[in-house]
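# step 3/5: fold
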Amino acid sequence: MGELGSFSCGYFIHVFYIDYVSKVRHLLVNAPEHVKFFVTTSDGDIHRELSQIGADFPDRMLVNSVPNRGRNFAPLLIEFGAFMQNLDFCIFLHSKKSKQSRNGAEWSSTNWDFFDFSNNRFLDSLGIFLGNEEIAVLSVLNARVARNQVFGWGPSYKVAKTKIGKKLELHPKRLDKFYFPAGGMFAIKNTELRWISELALEYEDFEEETSQLDGTLAHAIERLIGYSSARTHDAQIVWDPASNSLRVPGVGSK
């Protein structure tokens, strides 16, 4: 692990499906002891099973039961936002399989497999991510949209402008182009998360979860990850499973 041990880190995970409970334990067992886990779920059975893991690792894992609103971002930011501010970097994961999307379950598994401390590719990528102050976000390239690596607000523009733009005094434009970690799973440095506390969001700000594909506050926050990096000229890097390599994505990166 070497110098990686000097960085404070936390996993922030929202679990939708019970078959991912064992994956949470796997990540926890493989992660260094100083890495903390902050886990949420809206399902009672999943909460009970996660709580059993938490009881086995009381100093490393917190589990909260939450409303089914705002996909993964609402519960993680509202429940654990204060913890994020005290860490050098955070890893966001969720188990949403996006059943209405092609290869949705495979995409979720790809991210969970990558952001695993037993994965040497992740460790190598993490070394570059932490070793370069200009890199703010590390994610996995979504193969389903790999041909179009220049993204933007899309249907989430209106939500971003009204709910986020006003609070942060941002003035996003519909045609702004930037890369963001599509799917909402990524590693991000603390310096890029400062805007979260400024949002002061509550559950009522988010839509109830009905498997929406786009256009919600959670989707707007997902895009804000990329938009914020583009505005500050911080770089993003992605692991490309197809080429088995680490690289810089499209617009908005150095």
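# step 4/5: annotate
The mean pLDDT is 85.
# step 5/5: archive (pending)
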